[in-house]
Amino acid sequence: MHPEVRSPGPGDCPKCGMALEPVAPAHAESDPAADAELRGMGRRFWGSLVLTVPVVGFAAGEMMPGMGGAGWVPAGWNGWIQLALSTPVLLWGGRPFFQRGWASLVSRSLNMFTLIALGTGVAYLYSVVAVVAPGIFPNVFRTPHGAVPVYFEAAAVIVTLVLLGQVLELRARSRTSDAIKKLLNLAPKTARRLKADSSEEDVAVETVQAGDRLRVRPGERIPTDGVVQEGTSAVDEAMITGEPIP
Fold first, then answer.
1. What gap in Å lies between CA 91 and CA 230, rounded to an integer?
2. 10-52 confidence digits (pLDDT tens)
3. Hey, which residues does 190 pair with through a beta bridge?
4. What is the residue extent of each domain of the chain?
5. What's the rounded Cα separation, in Å, for the pair 233 and 221?
6. Which residues share a beta bridge with 214?
7. Over 90: is that where the pLDDT of 181 sits?
8. How would CATH label the architecture of 188-245?
């Protein structure tokens, strides 16, 4: 996503179409919205894959010499079966891509989803017309056998592959986000601040201000950056340096 894009809530980037990322990961163990997006894309991918495989099979049967699809299904049914199988792939599996592609046209910020939506949409609509009304096509559009070629398998395969890419990307982002959250959870939530009379009070780290005096006891985590004014100790900096020795 573009770094200059800001939004008060989750959504898609109006420029690149990718999902918006939080400016700072929360300290929670998981993000329900991100998990829901990953599960949703996973369902779309597996559902589209199940339907795309037979579409490719029927398309390959048409291109095999001497078969013309007749060895698979009755003559004239091949296109209708591909239409029935590829329609859910485009309208359900590819719905997020068409939504993002339309948003890119509205915002006049063309991106990869614009190409995906246009390419798969045109191939699908052309193929639908070729199946429903083949008589409107001139001879130049027809094969030597007189049939009008369809491209359902191309549209379905593109949508399925892009869905696979989205699933892999979301999974990688989820793992990276989890690693960052685990690092953030290592930071202490409170600090021990010294008052003017040298008494102590526990306060949230967010309320610590420049000039406050903090006390860190042996074995505790250092809550903020600062300068040691009194006392000596050894600090485990393995989280920063990677060295096992303090």
1. 68
2. 666 666 666 666 665 554 455 666 678 889 999 999 999 999 9
3. 204
4. 32-184, 188-245
5. 12
6. 193
7. no
8. Distorted Sandwich (2.70)
